[in-house]
Amino acid sequence: MIHPFRWLLRLALALGLSCAALTAHAAAEQERIALQHAPYRVNDLLALQNGAKLFVNYCLNCHSAKYMRYERLRAIGLTADQVQKNLMFSESRLGDTMKVAMTPAQAEAWFGASPPDLSVIERALASHRGSGADYLYTYLLSFYRDPTRPTGWNNLVLPGVAMPNPLWPLQGERAAKFVLTKDPAAAGLQLKRFVAYEQLTPGSLSPTQYDSQIADLVAYMQWMAEPDQLERKRLGVIVLLFLALLTFITWRLKSEYWKDVS
């Protein structure tokens, strides 16, 4: 699908506007980066518990998870007491859903739009580019400092994002380096291509440690989107084994019944 902005540029070129003006506008169009493959840790309870801790500390301040109840966290190996003492920072009860205190009006004033609910965001972001987990993993690893943005942050996966990097104390501050390249789909137009990051300030974690923390956080959001997925897969294996056994028994019965038929 052609990006609307790119389509307008091509139309303007066809109408005879100057190539210099077109190039100046086209240079602002950023090339879409490929998604990284997110490590699969949904079957790792320790990773899910760490991801839940990261979620309530860094995501739940602005984003709600209104289809997830705190009591469901017991399914990842936490006790009710652990959930209440370590993961609940308001007057919510164990049976309540994960809501935020920020109102839609406040979100509109501070961010320009209300932050989306994250209950099933992992499933909602799946596309031909990759899974929702791949998108979230790459997105959370792709923030960089941008003084032209109101929040001072931008993102390679979602350019112009209104959300700042919530985990920057862990990752540190980075700048992104770009170069202008020719657009292979349109002569005379240019794309802004990402080259590398430049670390501006260190974070509290090393790059390897930070990547692992993001993998845990994404694994939790992947589990939260479908808490029964491991049970569903376990039952699926049992059903397939049962059907295989039933097929074998049926085949042997058929052979026994028809062995005397010429």
Specify the structural class.
alpha+beta
Q: Output the CATH homologous superfamily of the largest domain.
A: Cytochrome c-like domain
CATH class descriptor name of the largest domain: Mainly Alpha
Distance between the termini: 62 Å
Q: Can you tell me the CATH topology of the largest domain? A: Cytochrome Bc1 Complex, Chain D, domain 2
Low-confidence stretches: 1-28
CATH architecture call of the largest domain: Orthogonal Bundle
How do the helices and strands follow one another from N- to C-terminus? HHHEHEHHHEEHEEHH
Shape: globular
Q: Find the count of extended strands (DSSP E, 2+ residues).
A: 6
Percent range for β-strand residues: 5-15%
> Radius of gyration in whole Å, from Cα?
25 Å
How many alpha or pi helices? 10
Biggest sheet character: 2 strands, antiparallel
What is the count of structural domains? 2
Portion in helices: 40-55%
